[in-house]
Amino acid sequence: MTLLKQGLNVINITISSKAHRDMSKPSLSIEQLSVFNVSTDIIYESPNVSYYNEGSLFPVEAFWTLYLFNLNDDEIGTVYLLLKYKLHSTTVTIGETYSFTVVYDDRVLEYRVPTNKPIIYQDEDLRFMSEIHKLFDGNFTTCVGLPVQGESPPWFWMRLNTNWLNISSSTFGVRVVGNQISCQPNGRTLLQIAYPLESPIFENELKHRMEFCILTNITSNRRVVECDYHCQCSKGNDCQEMILFMANQEKMAPWSLCEISARNVV
After folding, report:
1. Pick from 142, 115, 147, 117: which is nearest to 131 by CA?
2. CB-based contacts of 2: which residues, under 8 Å, 6+ apart?
3. Is the Cβ–Cβ distance between 192 and 143 less than 8 Å?
4. What's the pLDDT band for 163 if we cut at 50, 70, 90?
Protein backbone atom coordinates (compact mmCIF):
# COMPACT_ATOMS: atom_id res chain seq x y z
CA MET A 1 0.00 0.00 0.00
CA THR A 2 1.21 3.52 -0.71
CA LEU A 3 -0.34 6.97 -0.13
CA LEU A 4 -1.20 9.34 -2.97
CA LYS A 5 -1.17 13.12 -2.82
CA GLN A 6 -3.63 15.24 -4.77
CA GLY A 7 -2.99 15.43 -8.53
CA LEU A 8 -0.51 13.37 -10.52
CA ASN A 9 1.54 10.70 -8.75
CA VAL A 10 4.43 8.83 -10.37
CA ILE A 11 5.50 5.74 -8.42
CA ASN A 12 8.77 4.01 -9.19
CA ILE A 13 9.25 0.68 -7.46
CA THR A 14 12.08 -1.84 -7.57
CA ILE A 15 11.24 -5.35 -6.36
CA SER A 16 13.96 -7.95 -5.88
CA SER A 17 13.69 -11.52 -4.63
CA LYS A 18 17.37 -11.60 -3.56
CA ALA A 19 17.71 -14.79 -5.63
CA HIS A 20 20.99 -15.65 -7.34
CA ARG A 21 20.79 -14.02 -10.76
CA ASP A 22 23.05 -16.58 -12.43
CA MET A 23 20.62 -19.43 -11.70
CA SER A 24 18.46 -20.68 -14.56
CA LYS A 25 15.81 -21.50 -11.98
CA PRO A 26 16.10 -19.40 -8.82
CA SER A 27 14.49 -20.35 -5.52
CA LEU A 28 12.07 -17.41 -5.58
CA SER A 29 10.83 -15.59 -8.66
CA ILE A 30 8.31 -12.91 -9.62
CA GLU A 31 5.18 -14.08 -11.46
CA GLN A 32 3.01 -10.98 -11.76
CA LEU A 33 2.73 -7.36 -10.61
CA SER A 34 -0.62 -5.59 -10.65
CA VAL A 35 -2.80 -2.96 -9.01
CA PHE A 36 -5.01 -4.76 -6.51
CA ASN A 37 -7.23 -1.88 -5.38
CA VAL A 38 -7.33 1.92 -5.28
CA SER A 39 -9.39 4.38 -3.28
CA THR A 40 -12.26 6.37 -4.81
CA ASP A 41 -11.40 9.10 -7.34
CA ILE A 42 -8.11 7.50 -8.38
CA ILE A 43 -7.35 7.11 -12.10
CA TYR A 44 -4.34 5.04 -13.21
CA GLU A 45 -2.73 3.62 -16.29
CA SER A 46 -1.52 0.05 -16.67
CA PRO A 47 1.89 -0.15 -15.01
CA ASN A 48 5.07 -0.24 -17.08
CA VAL A 49 7.10 -3.27 -15.96
CA SER A 50 10.62 -4.28 -16.97
CA TYR A 51 12.80 -7.06 -15.58
CA TYR A 52 16.49 -7.41 -14.77
CA ASN A 53 16.66 -10.73 -16.63
CA GLU A 54 14.25 -9.81 -19.44
CA GLY A 55 12.96 -12.88 -21.26
CA SER A 56 13.68 -15.28 -18.42
CA LEU A 57 10.94 -17.65 -17.31
CA PHE A 58 11.86 -16.87 -13.71
CA PRO A 59 12.47 -13.12 -13.23
CA VAL A 60 14.05 -12.18 -9.90
CA GLU A 61 14.02 -8.37 -10.11
CA ALA A 62 11.43 -6.00 -11.54
CA PHE A 63 11.32 -2.24 -12.15
CA TRP A 64 7.83 -0.82 -12.01
CA THR A 65 6.54 2.61 -13.00
CA LEU A 66 2.93 3.51 -12.23
CA TYR A 67 1.09 6.74 -13.12
CA LEU A 68 -1.92 7.63 -10.97
CA PHE A 69 -4.05 10.77 -10.72
CA ASN A 70 -5.90 11.62 -7.52
CA LEU A 71 -9.04 13.64 -8.35
CA ASN A 72 -9.97 14.22 -4.71
CA ASP A 73 -8.75 17.62 -3.47
CA ASP A 74 -9.62 16.95 0.17
CA GLU A 75 -8.21 13.49 0.94
CA ILE A 76 -5.02 11.55 0.39
CA GLY A 77 -5.76 8.48 -1.70
CA THR A 78 -4.31 5.00 -1.34
CA VAL A 79 -3.32 2.29 -3.80
CA TYR A 80 -2.79 -1.40 -2.99
CA LEU A 81 -0.31 -3.31 -5.13
CA LEU A 82 -0.33 -7.07 -5.61
CA LEU A 83 2.77 -9.21 -6.12
CA LYS A 84 2.37 -12.85 -7.14
CA TYR A 85 5.46 -15.00 -6.65
CA LYS A 86 6.58 -18.59 -7.04
CA LEU A 87 8.74 -20.72 -4.76
CA HIS A 88 10.62 -23.40 -6.68
CA SER A 89 10.70 -26.49 -4.49
CA THR A 90 13.62 -28.03 -6.40
CA THR A 91 15.96 -25.20 -5.41
CA VAL A 92 14.43 -23.89 -2.17
CA THR A 93 16.35 -24.99 0.93
CA ILE A 94 14.10 -25.97 3.81
CA GLY A 95 14.79 -23.85 6.87
CA GLU A 96 16.14 -20.89 4.87
CA THR A 97 14.40 -17.51 4.94
CA TYR A 98 13.22 -16.01 1.65
CA SER A 99 12.01 -12.47 1.11
CA PHE A 100 11.35 -9.66 -1.34
CA THR A 101 12.98 -6.24 -1.04
CA VAL A 102 10.82 -3.34 -2.17
CA VAL A 103 12.40 0.08 -2.80
CA TYR A 104 10.32 3.21 -3.45
CA ASP A 105 10.37 6.87 -2.36
CA ASP A 106 13.81 6.35 -0.75
CA ARG A 107 12.30 3.69 1.47
CA VAL A 108 13.45 0.09 1.68
CA LEU A 109 10.98 -2.55 2.88
CA GLU A 110 11.40 -6.29 3.27
CA TYR A 111 8.59 -8.81 3.01
CA ARG A 112 9.27 -12.36 4.13
CA VAL A 113 7.81 -15.22 2.10
CA PRO A 114 6.34 -18.14 4.08
CA THR A 115 7.87 -21.45 2.99
CA ASN A 116 5.63 -23.80 4.99
CA LYS A 117 8.70 -25.48 6.39
CA PRO A 118 8.21 -28.87 8.07
CA ILE A 119 7.22 -29.13 11.72
CA ILE A 120 9.32 -31.59 13.74
CA TYR A 121 8.04 -32.45 17.19
CA GLN A 122 10.27 -31.31 20.09
CA ASP A 123 13.15 -30.25 17.88
CA GLU A 124 13.91 -27.19 20.00
CA ASP A 125 17.65 -27.31 19.31
CA LEU A 126 16.95 -27.62 15.53
CA ARG A 127 19.04 -30.77 15.40
CA PHE A 128 16.84 -32.32 12.72
CA MET A 129 15.76 -29.12 10.98
CA SER A 130 19.40 -28.23 10.29
CA GLU A 131 19.75 -31.46 8.27
CA ILE A 132 16.23 -31.83 6.87
CA HIS A 133 17.32 -30.71 3.38
CA LYS A 134 19.14 -34.05 3.04
CA LEU A 135 15.77 -35.80 2.77
CA PHE A 136 14.85 -33.98 -0.46
CA ASP A 137 18.16 -33.82 -2.35
CA GLY A 138 17.67 -37.02 -4.38
CA ASN A 139 20.77 -38.59 -2.83
CA PHE A 140 20.32 -41.80 -0.85
CA THR A 141 23.78 -41.44 0.73
CA THR A 142 22.95 -38.21 2.59
CA CYS A 143 20.96 -39.29 5.63
CA VAL A 144 19.67 -37.95 8.94
CA GLY A 145 20.30 -40.01 12.07
CA LEU A 146 17.10 -40.89 13.92
CA PRO A 147 16.45 -40.97 17.70
CA VAL A 148 17.05 -44.19 19.64
CA GLN A 149 15.93 -45.39 23.07
CA GLY A 150 17.28 -43.11 25.78
CA GLU A 151 16.85 -39.94 23.74
CA SER A 152 13.94 -37.57 24.28
CA PRO A 153 11.68 -38.11 22.50
CA PRO A 154 12.78 -41.63 21.44
CA TRP A 155 10.91 -41.33 18.14
CA PHE A 156 10.65 -39.02 15.10
CA TRP A 157 7.47 -37.14 14.12
CA MET A 158 7.27 -34.67 11.23
CA ARG A 159 4.41 -32.81 9.57
CA LEU A 160 5.28 -31.86 6.01
CA ASN A 161 3.52 -29.63 3.48
CA THR A 162 3.11 -31.71 0.32
CA ASN A 163 4.24 -28.79 -1.85
CA TRP A 164 7.78 -29.85 -0.94
CA LEU A 165 7.08 -33.18 -2.66
CA ASN A 166 5.71 -31.60 -5.86
CA ILE A 167 2.36 -33.35 -5.66
CA SER A 168 -1.02 -31.78 -6.29
CA SER A 169 -3.58 -34.56 -6.69
CA SER A 170 -5.84 -36.26 -4.15
CA THR A 171 -4.09 -39.58 -4.77
CA PHE A 172 -0.32 -39.89 -4.52
CA GLY A 173 2.45 -42.35 -3.85
CA VAL A 174 5.17 -41.81 -1.24
CA ARG A 175 8.58 -43.45 -1.09
CA VAL A 176 10.67 -43.41 2.10
CA VAL A 177 14.29 -44.58 2.02
CA GLY A 178 16.45 -45.23 5.07
CA ASN A 179 19.11 -47.35 6.72
CA GLN A 180 17.97 -50.12 9.06
CA ILE A 181 14.37 -48.87 8.97
CA SER A 182 11.19 -50.95 8.94
CA CYS A 183 8.30 -50.19 6.60
CA GLN A 184 5.72 -51.86 8.84
CA PRO A 185 3.20 -49.67 10.73
CA ASN A 186 3.73 -51.60 13.98
CA GLY A 187 6.41 -53.61 15.75
CA ARG A 188 9.62 -52.79 17.59
CA THR A 189 10.73 -50.66 14.64
CA LEU A 190 7.93 -48.95 12.74
CA LEU A 191 7.07 -46.33 10.14
CA GLN A 192 3.68 -44.70 9.58
CA ILE A 193 2.62 -42.33 6.80
CA ALA A 194 -0.64 -40.43 7.19
CA TYR A 195 -2.42 -37.25 6.17
CA PRO A 196 -4.45 -35.11 8.62
CA LEU A 197 -8.21 -34.76 8.15
CA GLU A 198 -8.22 -31.46 10.01
CA SER A 199 -5.80 -28.69 10.86
CA PRO A 200 -4.32 -28.87 14.38
CA ILE A 201 -5.05 -26.07 16.82
CA PHE A 202 -1.40 -25.79 17.85
CA GLU A 203 1.64 -26.07 15.58
CA ASN A 204 3.06 -29.16 17.31
CA GLU A 205 -0.29 -30.71 18.16
CA LEU A 206 -0.18 -34.52 17.81
CA LYS A 207 -3.82 -35.26 18.57
CA HIS A 208 -5.90 -34.71 15.45
CA ARG A 209 -7.86 -36.93 13.11
CA MET A 210 -5.83 -38.55 10.35
CA GLU A 211 -5.96 -41.23 7.69
CA PHE A 212 -3.10 -43.69 7.22
CA CYS A 213 -1.55 -44.46 3.84
CA ILE A 214 -1.28 -48.09 2.67
CA LEU A 215 2.07 -49.86 2.44
CA THR A 216 2.35 -51.29 -1.11
CA ASN A 217 5.95 -52.40 -1.57
CA ILE A 218 9.22 -53.02 0.30
CA THR A 219 12.65 -53.14 -1.35
CA SER A 220 15.70 -54.06 0.71
CA ASN A 221 19.37 -53.99 -0.29
CA ARG A 222 21.48 -54.83 2.76
CA ARG A 223 21.02 -51.89 5.14
CA VAL A 224 19.11 -49.68 2.70
CA VAL A 225 15.32 -50.13 2.77
CA GLU A 226 12.78 -48.50 0.44
CA CYS A 227 9.13 -48.26 1.55
CA ASP A 228 6.34 -47.38 -0.89
CA TYR A 229 2.94 -46.12 0.26
CA HIS A 230 -0.34 -45.27 -1.44
CA CYS A 231 -2.28 -42.26 -0.10
CA GLN A 232 -5.79 -41.43 -1.25
CA CYS A 233 -7.45 -38.34 0.19
CA SER A 234 -11.22 -38.07 0.17
CA LYS A 235 -10.91 -34.28 -0.19
CA GLY A 236 -8.27 -32.25 -1.98
CA ASN A 237 -7.56 -30.15 1.11
CA ASP A 238 -6.58 -33.28 3.03
CA CYS A 239 -3.60 -33.72 0.71
CA GLN A 240 -1.97 -30.44 1.68
CA GLU A 241 0.01 -32.06 4.49
CA MET A 242 1.61 -35.40 5.25
CA ILE A 243 2.67 -36.85 8.59
CA LEU A 244 5.63 -39.19 9.02
CA PHE A 245 6.13 -41.11 12.29
CA MET A 246 9.06 -43.44 13.03
CA ALA A 247 9.96 -45.26 16.23
CA ASN A 248 12.56 -47.82 17.25
CA GLN A 249 12.47 -49.81 20.50
CA GLU A 250 15.86 -51.42 19.90
CA LYS A 251 18.54 -49.95 22.17
CA MET A 252 21.68 -48.53 20.55
CA ALA A 253 20.51 -49.53 17.07
CA PRO A 254 21.84 -46.99 14.53
CA TRP A 255 19.24 -46.11 11.94
CA SER A 256 18.70 -43.14 9.66
CA LEU A 257 16.27 -41.52 7.23
CA CYS A 258 17.75 -40.76 3.81
CA GLU A 259 15.09 -39.69 1.33
CA ILE A 260 11.39 -38.79 1.00
CA SER A 261 9.81 -38.48 -2.42
CA ALA A 262 6.33 -38.61 -3.92
CA ARG A 263 4.48 -38.74 -7.22
CA ASN A 264 0.97 -37.96 -8.36
CA VAL A 265 -1.26 -40.94 -9.12
CA VAL A 266 -3.96 -40.33 -11.70
Report:
1. 142
2. 11, 78, 79, 81, 104, 105
3. no
4. confident
